[in-house]
Design goal:
This protein is α+β, with helices and mostly antiparallel strands. It has two domains: about 1-45; about 75-220, Oxidoreductase, molybdopterin-binding domain (Sulfite Oxidase, Chain A, domain 2, Alpha-Beta Complex), CATH 3.90.420. About 25% of the residues lie in helices and about 30% in strands. It is built from five helices and ten strands, in the order H-H-E-E-H-E-E-H-E-E-H-E-E-E-E. The protein has helices at about 1-15, 15-35, 90-95, 125-130, 160-165, and strands at about 75-80, 85-90, 100-110, 115-125, 145-150, 155-160, 170-180, 185-190, 200, 220. The longest helix is centred in the N-terminal third of the chain and has 19 residues, at about 15-35. It is rod-shaped, with a radius of gyration of 45 Å.
Length: about 220
């Protein structure tokens, strides 16, 4: 009788081996989990591992750039060189050529009435502008000159004025006028692009007011 029972049990196990072992494995996992034990390596064959799901968060940062004002205030003049096409020269060309603004250059003017005016000037050297346009200042001889135009009228700057470090195309200036008779002082400030800028100021100690050209529109080189 017992042998028949054992035979039936063995037959059931043989026919359902995978189910029996799976049942045993699940039971062992439950026991191990309950008691906090480590799972044997052989038992991993009967368990399913679910891959961990990772979540990636992408943060987009928007940067707003505020464009700075040009270091050299806006102006535009034409430059005429012998045998060359006319050049339009602007503050942006000056920036590209890395020209440096000259600051606090003091230039004195005396008019026909004897009034003396001191100008504090900010702007670009005439010779630097010509150099940026392709002129080799060192190759100019004593016959060279530049005509500075305001519209159709102009004045002549000789080589000494061309080469002077204080011959300035001003983008802004302030003036301090002293009356030659009474000594009274008048202060006036002209901001950049305020009607008569760019304005050419002759350097090299020249104080003749007729060479102080307002509203410069063009330069023409002769040699």
């Amino acid at each position: 009788m017992l042998s028949d029972i054992l035979a039936k049990i063995w037959g059931f196990i043989s026919e359902n081996a995978m189910k029996v072992w799976a049942f045993i494995a699940v039971g062992l996992v439950a026991i191990i989990t309950f008691f906090g034990l480590s799972t044997p390596g052989w038992l991993n064959d009967y368990t399913t591992t679910v891959p961990a799901t990772s979540t990636t968060t992408t943060t987009t940062t928007t940067t707003t750039t505020t464009e700075a004002e040009p270091a050299i205030p806006a102006f535009s003049i034409t430059v005429n060189l012998p045998g060359e096409a006319q050049i339009t020269f602007t503050n942006l060309d000056a920036i590209e050529a890395d020209l440096q603004l000259q600051n606090n250059i003091v230039i004195t003017s005396t008019n026909s009435a004897g009034t003396v005016t001191d100008y504090t000037v900010t702007g670009l050297k005439l010779k630097d502008i010509l150099t940026a346009c392709g002129v080799d200042i060192g190759e100019l001889d004593s016959s060279a000159s530049v005509k500075v135009f305001s519209g159709s009228s102009g004045v002549i700057y000789d080589l000494d004025l061309i080469e002077a470090d204080d011959t300035i195309l001003a983008t802004s200036y302030s003036s301090h006028a002293v009356d030659g008779v009474s000594g009274a002082v008048t202060d006036k400030t002209v901001g950049e692009n305020a009607g008569d800028c760019p304005r050419m100021f002759p350097g090299n100690g020249v104080s003749t007011s007729s060479l102080f050209m307002k509203q410069v529109t063009a330069l023409e080189l002769f040699y």
